[in-house]
Fold this protein.
Amino acid sequence: MVQNLEREVADHYGASGLLERILSGLREQGVDTEALKPEDLAPVDEFHVGGRAATVHAVAPLGLSEDDHVLDMGCGIGGATRYIASEFGCRVTGIDLTPDYIETARALAGLTGLDDRVSYEVASATDLPFETDSFDAAVTIHVAMNIPERARLYAETARVLKPGKLFCVYDVMGSDDDPFAYPVPWADTAATSHLTSVQEMRDLLAAAGFAIEHEEDRHRFALDFFRERLAAAKDGPPPLGLHIVMGEKARPKFENILANIERGCVSPVVMIARLAD
């Protein structure tokens, strides 16, 4: 059951030829792909509500330094991992279910000169291939919406995180019951959408040994983000953007998530939680 669901999720996000499409978009914008910087990739490699600005905001409370080793669960093509490594100088390990994403993440790490600080593995967030007490911080950005086994996800996070360290959660929370509109960026149908409410998240994190130190609903930020993106793309998508990752359904997915946020079905929420000593 779990393996079948994970296969469906990987298939949902899979995108062969992704690297070449990204490089083509960069060249069309006049970017020198032989001297690529992490910020050049920001329009395409931050596959979540708010993009790079949201990543910067979410991870700031972690207080990262160059001595830290950070785990990013559900890293996609590695946008957040490369931002964290370049901004704070620390090591970052990213995992994702989608082989195409991991392959692309590794290539982009090399092209941006960060492959000495970032590494990637195809792996499940509910069965992490790491030793206990391996990481100084953990991050999950718009990943848990595809995971029904939340208790197992957070128990695994607690296992690999060192005692007393911080966990950053930035996820869409709410209910995917009717009148929820599909497709959305993380799921084409309800079969692979597994949302939880804010209170359920609080309870799950507490059960795994975490104490929430900061909680923020980014509802208004999300509305502004999607309205601006849809308005900017009314005459067609730019050369470089999330449509490269999301495919031809990018616009209806953006329209549906905006409608769901406007109706109050869902909202992106940041939680910073500390693991017990």
Remarks:
- The chain has a mean pLDDT of 92.
